Amino acid sequence: MATAQSILALRKQLIAATGESQNTEDAVIILKRLKEEVVATDELLRETKIGVTVNKLRNNTAKEVADLAKELVRKWKADVGKTGTKKTSTAAASTSNSTGASPSPGPSPIPAAKSPEPGRGPLPAITTASSAKPAASPAPESQSPAPSSSSAPNGPLRRQSSGGPPRTHKTDGVEFGKGKDATGDKTREKCCELIYDALAQDSGAPSDLILSRARALENHVWEENPPPAGSATYRNKMRSFYLNLKAANNPGLREGIVSGEISIVQLYNMDPKDMASEERKAENRKLVAENLFKAQAAAPQQAETDAFQCGKCKQRRCMYYQMQTRSADEPMTTFVTCLSCNNRWKFS
């Protein structure tokens, strides 16, 4: 099983192999090594951030790299699920063992009935029943601690993927508007609070780190758009950052900001389309291709001819098409393009 250090080394090699000068063969070899050597756990993925790097390769231009990345992401998700199931079953087994180990006190023995004194009849039967009642009463008392151990409140789950509520500044106990870093402005503090909640919702990073990144982003936007002229731009920028960072399908952007892979200045200069997730970028590229195809399909049919002479270069290699641009009783308009100099003209 690979260690965290070896995974970090493979991650650096993978980033270099899939950079601008992409080396598909090296990337495939590294992905195959990760598939064979790494058994993913939640802590390991959070520490090495290898999951973020591999997840970005699912839309790689090289089909073999993209397929391996998708297969690797599915495998690691299954590994993390198995790890969580084992932890849950282990906790349940320890709880049941601790409950079963505590012996419940049995009913207290009934004292032997004394022999009746001379001159008296036998003791009434109600004496035995009344002595048996206290023996049965300790049973509920011995069972009462069991429910309290199972219903004891656990610590709040910090990661939304583990089934708990999303992590926010309230769950972390972070207060805005107080302390030495407070801005003293309610609007700015509210923006810092929203950015913190967006960054922290599925992060395992310390709250101090997330708070520093949220305040750094807000402060940079404020300095680039000082009031009163930049107030509208400041609000629009902060709204755009919040909506893109809190998107459930965009964990890579959040992870990059918290880890420092994406600097505050780099994030500020990004367009909304650059901040979108890899899935969203792929959808946008598909829509652009479809729209381009439809626009080309709607264009009029053109034909090549030598019947026209270009007035600019005097060549006769031309493309033309005709359209009815005026009323129906008027002749069609002919549009001509010279294939030599790209000169265009029309006539009726």
TrEMBL record:
<keyword id="KW-0238">DNA-binding</keyword>
<feature type="domain" description="TFIIS central">
    <location>
        <begin position="187"/>
        <end position="303"/>
    </location>
</feature>
<keyword id="KW-0539">Nucleus</keyword>
<dbReference type="InterPro" id="IPR003617">
    <property type="entry name" value="TFIIS/CRSP70_N_sub"/>
</dbReference>
<dbReference type="InterPro" id="IPR035441">
    <property type="entry name" value="TFIIS/LEDGF_dom_sf"/>
</dbReference>
<dbReference type="InterPro" id="IPR001222">
    <property type="entry name" value="Znf_TFIIS"/>
</dbReference>
<dbReference type="Pfam" id="PF08711">
    <property type="entry name" value="Med26"/>
</dbReference>
<dbReference type="GO" id="GO:0006368">
    <property type="term" value="P:transcription elongation by RNA polymerase II"/>
</dbReference>
<dbReference type="GO" id="GO:0005634">
    <property type="term" value="C:nucleus"/>
</dbReference>
<dbReference type="Pfam" id="PF01096">
    <property type="entry name" value="Zn_ribbon_TFIIS"/>
</dbReference>
<dbReference type="InterPro" id="IPR036575">
    <property type="entry name" value="TFIIS_cen_dom_sf"/>
</dbReference>
<comment type="function">
    <text>Necessary for efficient RNA polymerase II transcription elongation past template-encoded arresting sites.</text>
</comment>
<protein>
    <recommendedName>
        <fullName>Transcription elongation factor</fullName>
    </recommendedName>
</protein>
<feature type="domain" description="TFIIS-type">
    <location>
        <begin position="306"/>
        <end position="346"/>
    </location>
</feature>
<dbReference type="Pfam" id="PF07500">
    <property type="entry name" value="TFIIS_M"/>
</dbReference>
<feature type="region of interest" description="Disordered">
    <location>
        <begin position="80"/>
        <end position="185"/>
    </location>
</feature>
<dbReference type="GO" id="GO:0001139">
    <property type="term" value="F:RNA polymerase II complex recruiting activity"/>
</dbReference>
<keyword id="KW-0862">Zinc</keyword>
<keyword id="KW-0805">Transcription regulation</keyword>
<keyword id="KW-0804">Transcription</keyword>
<dbReference type="GO" id="GO:0008270">
    <property type="term" value="F:zinc ion binding"/>
</dbReference>
<comment type="similarity">
    <text>Belongs to the TFS-II family.</text>
</comment>
<feature type="domain" description="TFIIS N-terminal">
    <location>
        <begin position="6"/>
        <end position="83"/>
    </location>
</feature>
<dbReference type="GO" id="GO:0000977">
    <property type="term" value="F:RNA polymerase II transcription regulatory region sequence-specific DNA binding"/>
</dbReference>
<dbReference type="InterPro" id="IPR006289">
    <property type="entry name" value="TFSII"/>
</dbReference>
<dbReference type="InterPro" id="IPR035100">
    <property type="entry name" value="TF_IIS-typ"/>
</dbReference>
<dbReference type="InterPro" id="IPR003618">
    <property type="entry name" value="TFIIS_cen_dom"/>
</dbReference>
<keyword id="KW-0863">Zinc-finger</keyword>
<feature type="compositionally biased region" description="Basic and acidic residues">
    <location>
        <begin position="169"/>
        <end position="185"/>
    </location>
</feature>
<keyword id="KW-0479">Metal-binding</keyword>
<dbReference type="GO" id="GO:0006362">
    <property type="term" value="P:transcription elongation by RNA polymerase I"/>
</dbReference>
<dbReference type="GO" id="GO:0031564">
    <property type="term" value="P:transcription antitermination"/>
</dbReference>
<dbReference type="InterPro" id="IPR017923">
    <property type="entry name" value="TFIIS_N"/>
</dbReference>
<feature type="compositionally biased region" description="Low complexity">
    <location>
        <begin position="81"/>
        <end position="103"/>
    </location>
</feature>
<dbReference type="GO" id="GO:0031440">
    <property type="term" value="P:regulation of mRNA 3'-end processing"/>
</dbReference>
<feature type="compositionally biased region" description="Low complexity">
    <location>
        <begin position="129"/>
        <end position="153"/>
    </location>
</feature>
